[in-house]
Design a protein that fits this description.
heterodimer; A: alpha+beta; Ubiquitin-like (UB roll); DNA polymerase, domain 1; 2 domains; five-stranded mixed β-sheet; 15% strand; B: alpha+beta; Uridine Diphospho-n-acetylenolpyruvylglucosamine Reductase, domain 2; Enolase-like, domain 1; five-stranded antiparallel β-sheet; 12 helices
């Protein structure tokens, strides 16, 4: 499929957008998309699947607002091409709650008032879910370091560290 | 980002065939640097060849007692691999000092080696830059050069290589295994990255039609006496102003072998054989470390904003060697420098 253009003469320029079929499992549901190869996973989630919980902050992998889980690992969806994730399982902030009950991290962020404007929050929560799954952070210093890829412009860091500690204790 | 064709490579031979057939193509693995550069219109490949699914993800012990790391092992997996943690903690420490966990989950070991400079002018596509557009001039030499190089520079380029992992790999004398149309070859780490000279557009001695398949670590991991110290403008998630990888083999207080590589100061991890030789046989003390630092920094030159790096590097080298000698490596989560 992706090699449909190989008969094309080498050295010619790209003439028309070429859409490629991609199958993903997003928050447990199988979705099939035909997308241009230069579509990031972030744009596919927001613009094609209407999952706008994942935010576009810097769009350069520097702020972490776009963090989602791919096959259980946290990544920056802004630096990921959707076509490269064929067959992957993607979890966004919309997929964390189960049966109407908030994910322990979502509840902890509310309990600890761990945000002001909220723009970074879905990235913070997805990143923290990845952090807990990794199991490498034990102390507050280690949480801070391993959450350093998520910038909070409002500076809610002390509360988000406390929220993550609460969720870690209860998970 | 420019429109481009996208194909997947089915195996290493297919990847080489595809890149040989299309000189305007680039390989993509983790994509953390390439996609970013495409968004800034610094890179605009006509085709991306996806190598991320190739079977280059294993970490295996070599018959000689070393370790062979597949080029596609993600940075985070490598940092937390039991054999790396136990035998090569310098590698783990260097990796964990860099980027964020999200990026480390994406970035590949091989890709780390070929990431491009973070020089502001390389990224700013409307300014002259010999690395981005050969012959256009260097904006950094007389510009905002706080982050730029103090060693091995040329009139054409004062960019630095941004990797932390590579500084540790240089100190441990890793070997880069590559495959191209002519077959496989091994490149000594010291000969992998280049100095800018008159061709700053070439970062490495990897040919455009070659692919990195593995990084090999020699048996010596210096696990008892090592440290990686990274100095930057904020405590986490920033590129190094200066970083130091130090590894010692001690006999009591006497240094039997020393390895020292400095990051953030040159177009490649900076190693000086004379400095390491001068440490051998010496007592592991501040005097010997200062002498080694002077040898590493011989010929260092500032360009205005980055003059501070010379003194900073000198002190960082002494401190990192002291940490290594004490057996108290710099923590990458507790930021206090002792």
């Amino acid at each position: 499929m992706a090699q449909a253009d190989t008969a094309e003469a080498i050295g010619t320029t790209v003439t028309a957008p070429q859409k490629i079929p991609v199958t993903l499992t997003v928050n447990g549901a199988r979705v099939e998309l035909a997308i241009a190869p230069w579509t990031t996973l972030l744009d596919a989630l927001r613009d094609r699947l209407d999952l706008t919980g994942t935010k576009k902050g810097c769009d350069h992998g520097q702020c972490g607002a776009c963090t989602v889980l791919v096959d259980g690992r946290r990544i920056n969806s802004c630096l990921t091409l959707a076509v490269m994730k064929e067959g992957a399982e993607v979890t966004t902030v919309e997929g964390l709650a189960t049966d109407g009950t908030l994910h322990p991290l979502q509840q902890a962020f509310i309990d600890h008032d761990a945000f002001q404007c909220g723009y970074c929050t879905s990235g913070q929560i997805c990143s923290a879910a990845g952090l807990i799954a990794e199991g490498k952070a034990k102390t507050a210093d280690e949480i801070r370091e391993l959450m350093s890829g998520n910038i909070c412009r409002c500076g809610a860091y002390p509360n988000s560290v406390a929220a993550i500690q609460q969720a870690m204790e209860r998970s | 980002m420019n429109p481009f064709h996208y194909t997947r490579a089915s195996d290493v031979s297919d990847a080489i065939r595809q890149i040989a057939a299309d000189p305007a193509a680039k390989f993509i693995a983790g994509g953390t640097n390439l996609i970013d550069l495409m968004k800034y219109d610094v890179e605009h490949p006509a085709r991306l060849i996806d190598i991320s699914h190739l079977p280059l993800r294993s970490v295996e012990e070599t018959s000689g007692g070393g370790l062979r790391i597949g080029a596609l092992v993600p940075n985070s997996d490598l940092a937390y691999h039991p054999l790396i943690e136990q035998r090569y903690p310098l590698i783990a420490s260097a990796i964990l000092s860099g980027a964020s966990q999200q990026l480390r989950n994406m970035a590949s070991t091989g890709g780390n080696l070929v990431q491009r400079t973070r020089c502001f002018y390389f990224y700013d596509a409307v300014t002259p830059c010999n690395k981005r557009q050969p012959g256009s001039g260097c904006s950094a030499i007389s510009g905002i050069n706080r982050i730029n190089a103090i060693l091995g520079t040329s009139e054409a380029c004062i960019a630095t290589h941004p990797s932390d992992l590579c500084v540790a790999l240089a100190a441990l004398e890793a070997i880069v295994h590559v495959v191209g149309p002519a077959g496989a070859r091994a490149i000594a780490f010291s000969n992998f990255h280049r100095l800018p000279g008159n061709t700053p557009q070439r970062d490495t001695n990897l040919e455009p039609n070659e692919i990195i398949t593995a990084i090999e670590l020699p048996p010596k991991g210096f696990r008892a006496n090592y440290s990686y110290l990274k100095i930057r403008d904020r405590l986490s998630y920033a590129f190094a102003l200066v970083s130091v990888a130090a590894a010692l083999e001690l006999d009591g207080d006497t240094i039997r072998e020393a390895r020292l590589a400095v990051g953030g100061v040159a177009h490649k991890p900076w190693r000086v054989a004379a400095a390491e030789a001068a440490l051998r046989g010496q007592r592991a003390d501040a005097g010997a470390f200062a002498q080694a630092a002077d040898l590493v920094l011989r010929g260092a030159k500032g360009y205005g904003h980055n003059n501070f790096k010379i003194g900073l590097a000198r002190r960082a080298i002494v401190r990192t060697l002291s940490q290594a000698a004490r057996g108290t490596p710099q923590s990458q989560s507790v930021k206090k420098i002792r």
